[in-house]
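Below is one such record:
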Amino acid sequence: MKAPGFQGATWGAVFVLAASVLWGTTGTAATFAPDVSPLAIGAVAMGFGGLLQAAIAARPILAFRGSLRRQWRTVALGALAVAMYPLAFYSSMHLAGVAVGTVVSIGSAPLASAVIERVVDKRRLTRRWAVGAVLGVSGAALLCLAESFAEAGHPDQPPGAEFSTPAGIALGLLAGLTYALYSWAAHRLINTGAPSRAVMGAVFGVGGLLLMPVLVATGAPFLVSWQNFSVGAYMAVVPMFAGYVLFGWGLARVRASTATTVSLAETVVAAVLAVIVVGERLPALAWGGAAMIAGSLLMLTLPAPRIRTRAKASDRTPVRQSTDDTSAATAGSASAGSSGFSGGSGL
């Protein structure tokens, strides 16, 4: 999907940032349905959200079915990651708390994305991205440590509670890996020339279908009360459907490692809502981590200064911009066709 008039890597980062704000509400929303399991929450959120994406993208999916069929392995990998992500993510928040579960899941995704791009695509990681990622992940780690220390200071923890946070952190790492995988897969498909609307609809639609058996097995509590039903409807329509439409626009303009790093904003939104709405308490160390994440976002979303070089008379190569992640992502927009993807440098 292409939003006319909103081209360029900066707008791509803004779209991802907007999606991250919506995603940051999911953990708090889930607390309003305490008798619904995290597996059911994940299945209804990403399952129905994915099916909605496929429904509105039916026409472009059919138009680009040949391209998607040729890339069926990438579609399948992305869809499997889409199905695994919410199950691990919501289970992580259930075991380790909203703030820690979100921070670990989203905070680990940029590193996973960087490794995938480096190993599979042989992409060089730029200095600006590295500094932004280190700053953001360090801030996420501070948030996680602060919350863990706060929980350790409570003497009234139930038996076995000491194992819930480590288990939640482990599931958070799995969620971060699967988040990075489906972001990479979707970006790779967009880079082949298919529009983001078709790609996100196909990948998330198949992923949603994979989650339907989980929803059938665990989703009965959604029908017990209007509150539970409303939570499920909100999760599917607002953060998952609308959020991933915005994310698809972002992936058409920035590479996957940049998108997953910008989405660290979700951890700050989740932490603030956990304090204001849920009643979780975060010490000063945690707010310091939030400030570091904000600095990372500022570094990655502001346009990089353009460096112009003098071309030789015999050289008809266009003037190139700086090698920043987001600037490099705009270098090949002329060859992206109808997809709206502006990443001439690849993923």
Q: What stands out?
A: The chain has a mean pLDDT of 77. Residues 49 and 240 are 5 Å apart (CA to CA). The first helix runs from residue 9 to 23.
